[in-house]
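Dear colleague,

As promised, here are the two records you asked about, laid out in our usual form so they can be pasted straight into your sheet.

NAME FIELD: protein one
SEQUENCE, THEN STRUCTURE:
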Amino acid sequence: MAKKNEAEMPETTNGLSISNFYQGLREELDKVVWPSRQQLVSESAAVLLMVTLSASLIYLVDGLFTWAAKQVF
């Protein structure tokens, strides 16, 4: 594995400062690819649909096992 040259590594300051924190925060948030409103709505609807279907399936299977357990015991 190759080592990075010292010249390639960015200089960092020792210690913490609020201005450096917010500058780094802004730089990272600029890299984020935010979804469009249409994409956000459609993917949220898909998640809600899948959660509803999964919960319904679990409810039905639980009811089946409850009924079967009552028949056996």
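NAME FIELD: protein two
SEQUENCE, THEN STRUCTURE:
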Amino acid sequence: MKRLLAALLVGMLMGGALVNVLLGEQVDRLTLVNQGLQDKLASTEKELEKVKENLASRQVRTITAIEVHVTLPGKDIPELDQAKARLVVENRVREWLRPLLGQEVSRLDHLLIPRVVDRRQVDVDGRRYVLKVNLVVVAEKTILYLDAVPQKNNSTTGIAGSEEQL
């Protein structure tokens, strides 16, 4: 009787561990997708607010949205880590460029955007990425294409956590 109970208990524990292993990655992936969708929703709501303000004034063209496209060169990074890195980098770049929202397109220093982002470093889960701007399209919907190049040397130089440096 005790052996049967022990076998049942061991079977339950092994089954629970197996389910955890099989579903853990899916839960992580779905969590990242959910977070990405929430960020897009928040960004879209801000865009809508700026568009409404722009329609109310209708005098000048202003930047109402910032769209960031990140490419991660290199195949040695797992897909889940790449997705998280893209999400973090996109959010950081939008955060850095948020003061541009509402600025007049015609009065904006167009060289300012690459200067703000290019060669900045972002840490994501202990891995450092250096940003390289490829293309900036300055319009009401400003679009930024950039590469996030992973660095082999992860030594920190007095920078805490996931801080950036120029």
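A couple of things worth noting about protein two: The two ends are 68 Å apart (CA to CA). The chain has one domain: 2-150.

Best,
R.
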